[in-house]
């Protein structure tokens, strides 16, 4: 087990190193840098001024030097300064993380707490009208992009209530906080819930055919005990895998959802930073997201062993 | 006639059908039998003859849809199980009537500890604390001769061998001391050496607990060792019923005779050893398109015109030896 953990940790470091290279060079491939953008907006370009500014920001140096400079700072905890605000990158990123984290957490909670039970019901009632209805809901969730769903929700709330939900940056009570995050979380989590439901359904259908389910019924166990205790415990592994992958995909969904709902989280901030070619912000933020995703995958793998006693991590 | 109070199970005219895309088929067609306390009844037949569906019908576990019990009665200790509601039926399953399945490798829940699975069976039917139920589970594991029962109770099914798992299944099935145990080919999936052990174990416990036993098998060797009475099924129907002695001494149905002839390694003394194993020609007919007459007629050497046109009634040939064959009287002479 210990050897596995060490090996796993090493692999995670290698992965993150690879990601850092990809982020860095992809960002440089995108045409233009912040200086181009600033000077293009001004309309007049004095090449000397431009060179000065580039020199000041260090983006005139060879790419390898720039990379080593960034990654060296990253490892020391020096994340550089935002080109746009000229504030330390960390100071810009950190306050926005809890907002996105709450949104993502709520969306995942939403997808698991809605998707899993509905998937179980759909499987147990396979072939009934309820199953078909749930599958239509699930298919619609997979087909609706989250920004479109977000826009629909906003339009509907204006049409029905004459106003749209406004982001409340300082919720006073727990309930207020929930109300602030629930709607955007639902908009972005709907897709995950739909996917979770589909996977739960197919995994459950597979498990419900197994001999040990018949054994459980032969013991006199109730339908609920059979479905949720005996079957779901066996069917949950693929669901966990999907939720783990969804946790990563969620970031993509959040970028548009935060924009649609005007929420000042990291995801929308990232888009802003990309538009300005604000390298320190983009690089460090994407690196941070990569770390989160890598750890989410690691957690999922560890959860396998918790849910399935047959899985043991040995050499 | 035995004392009626001794009767554990009385199945009358049981009919279970399946509704499929290719039509309706009668998996169990008008089957009747009884089991007395401590008695072993063997149900014998080829794959697909309705043995397992009969067993599942007794527990009302036939998957619905596509299956449904459409007629008859299943009286367990005086109660007709077919009239109970779902909750009442659940209180019977695993409590008064238990079942052991063919595949010990897949019949235990892979993500639950052995002990817990037995505890669950106990606590569903007995008002016991978790501790008491756990102690009982270990006691049951000891009863089925699993060494180190306390340690095994903490293990998961994949940590046990096939024979051990079947022992655990037996422990689970008998934990509530049921009146009737159904064993659906309990040894088919096991090694030959383990088979004998498991059978001996089931019989010992049956004697100890006075349980009625329905043993489903296709192995006539097992029948001869274990059962007091036998019913032979073919294409969903009971074609012969007799005591073990009577059946082996003088089978009345050509199908039974064919089954016996196809047992290898038991050559009758007057038959020279042969290179080729005996077989019954042909296969079990599709239950959707059964012939009007005897379902076995197309495979039967003795079949006459009447066999194809009229289904033979179950006739009593003395001493409760029933057989459904127009030519039962001639079977012994001809074959």
TrEMBL record, chain A:
GO terms for cellular component: plasma membrane. Pfam families: BPD_transp_1, BPD_transp_1_N. It comes from the Bacteria. GO terms for molecular function: dipeptide transmembrane transporter activity. It is found in: Cell membrane. Residues 97-304 form the ABC transmembrane type-1 domain. Keywords: Cell membrane, Membrane, Transmembrane, Transmembrane helix, Transport. The chain crosses the membrane at residues 9-30, 103-124, 136-162, 174-194, 235-256, 285-307. Its main location: membrane. The keyword Membrane applies. It is a multi-pass membrane protein. Belongs to the binding-protein-dependent transport system permease family. This is Peptide ABC transporter permease.
From TrEMBL, chain B:
Belongs to the ABC transporter superfamily. Its main location: membrane. GO terms for biological process: peptide transport; transmembrane transport. It comes from the Bacteria. Transmembrane segments: none annotated. Keywords: ATP-binding, Cell membrane, Membrane, Nucleotide-binding, Transport. Gene3D superfamilies: P-loop containing nucleotide triphosphate hydrolases. It comes from Bradyrhizobium centrolobii. Involved in beta-(1-->2)glucan export. Transmembrane domains (TMD) form a pore in the inner membrane and the ATP-binding domain (NBD) is responsible for energy generation. SMART domains: AAA. GO terms for molecular function: ATP binding; ATP hydrolysis activity. This is Peptide ABC transporter ATP-binding protein. It is a peripheral membrane protein. GO terms for cellular component: plasma membrane. Residues 9-260 form the ABC transporter domain. It is found in: Cell inner membrane. SUPFAM superfamilies: P-loop containing nucleoside triphosphate hydrolases.
């Amino acid at each position: 087990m210990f050897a596995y953990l060490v090996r796993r940790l090493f692999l995670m470091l290698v992965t993150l190193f690879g990601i850092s290279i990809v982020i860095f060079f992809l960002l440089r491939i995108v045409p233009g840098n912040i200086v181009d953008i600033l000077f293009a907006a001004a309309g007049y370009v004095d090449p000397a001024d431009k060179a000065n500014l580039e020199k000041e920001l260090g983006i005139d140096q060879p790419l390898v030097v720039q990379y080593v400079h960034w990654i060296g700072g990253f490892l020391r905890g020096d994340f550089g300064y935002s080109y746009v605000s000229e504030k330390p990158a960390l100071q810009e990123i950190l306050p926005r993380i809890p907002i996105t984290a709450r949104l993502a957490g709520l969306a995942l909670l939403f997808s698991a707490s809605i998707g899993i039970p509905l998937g179980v019901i759909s499987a147990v009632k396979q072939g009934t009208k309820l199953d078909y209805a749930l599958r239509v809901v699930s298919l619609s969730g997979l087909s609706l992009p989250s920004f479109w769903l977000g826009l629909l929700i906003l339009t509907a709330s204006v049409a029905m209530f004459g106003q749209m939900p406004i982001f409340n940056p300082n919720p006073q009570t727990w309930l207020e906080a929930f109300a602030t995050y629930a709607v955007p979380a639902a908009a972005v989590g709907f897709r995950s819930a739909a996917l979770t439901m589909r996977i739960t359904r197919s995994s459950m259908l597979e498990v419900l055919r197994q001999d040990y389910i018949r054994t459980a019924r032969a013991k006199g166990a109730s339908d609920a005990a059979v479905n949720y205790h005996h079957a779901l415990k066996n069917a949950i592994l693929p669901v966990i895998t999907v939720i783990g992958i969804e946790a990563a995909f969620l970031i993509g969904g959040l970028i548009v959802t935060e924009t649609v709902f005007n929420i000042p989280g990291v995801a929308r901030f990232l888009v802003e930073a990309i538009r300005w070619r604000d390298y320190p912000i983009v690089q460090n933020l994407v690196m941070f997201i990569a770390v989160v995703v890598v750890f989410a995958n690691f957690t999922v793998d560890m959860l396998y062993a918790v849910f399935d006693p047959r899985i043991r991590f040995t050499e | 006639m035995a004392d009626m109070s001794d009767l554990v199970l009385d199945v009358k005219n049981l009919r279970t059908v399946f509704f499929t895309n290719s039509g309706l088929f009668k998996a169990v067609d008008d089957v009747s039998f009884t089991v007395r306390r401590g008695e072993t009844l063997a149900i014998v037949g080829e794959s697909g003859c309705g043995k397992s569906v009969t067993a599942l019908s007794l527990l009302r576990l036939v998957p619905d849809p596509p299956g449904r019990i459409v007629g008859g009665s299943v009286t367990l200790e005086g109660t007709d199980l077919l009239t109970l509601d779902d909750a009442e039926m659940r209180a019977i399953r695993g409590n008064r009537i238990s079942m052991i399945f063919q595949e010990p490798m897949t019949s235990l829940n892979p993500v639950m500890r052995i002990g817990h699975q037995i505890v669950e069976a106990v606590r569903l039917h007995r008002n016991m604390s978790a501790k008491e139920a756990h102690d009982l589970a270990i006691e049951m594991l000891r009863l089925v001769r699993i060494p180190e029962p306390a340690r095994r109770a903490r293990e998961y099914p994949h940590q046990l061998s096939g024979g051990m798992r079947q022992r655990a299944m037996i422990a689970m099935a008998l934990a509530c001391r049921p009146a009737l145990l159904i064993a659906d080919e309990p040894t088919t999936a096991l090694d030959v050496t383990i088979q004998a052990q498991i059978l001996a174990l089931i019989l010992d416990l049956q004697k100890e607990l006075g349980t009625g036993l329905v043993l489903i098998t296709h192995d006539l060797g097992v029948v001869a060792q274990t059962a007091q009475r036998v019913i032979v099924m073919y294409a969903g129907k009971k074609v012969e019923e007799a005591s073990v002695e009577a059946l082996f001494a003088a089978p009345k149905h050509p199908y039974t005779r064919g089954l016996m002839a196809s047992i290898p390694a038991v050559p009758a003394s007057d038959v020279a050893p042969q290179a080729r194993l005996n077989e019954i020609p042909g296969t079990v007919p599709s239950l959707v398109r059964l012939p009007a007459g005897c379902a076995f007629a197309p495979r039967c050497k003795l079949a006459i015109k009447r066999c194809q046109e009229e289904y033979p009634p179950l006739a009593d040939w003395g001493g409760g030896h029933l057989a459904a064959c127009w030519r039962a009287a001639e079977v012994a002479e001809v074959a």
